[in-house]
Amino acid sequence: MGLLEMFGKKDVGNSLIRQIPYALKLRFAPYRLSLKDKGPVDLIVDIENLRDEEPLLTSVVIRVPKALGLDSMGLNQMREIRMGYLKPKETKSLRIELYPSARTKPGLYPVLVTAFCHYRDYSHILNSEKKRIELRVDE
Question: What confidence score (pLDDT) does residue 71 get?
Answer without folding.
Answer: 93
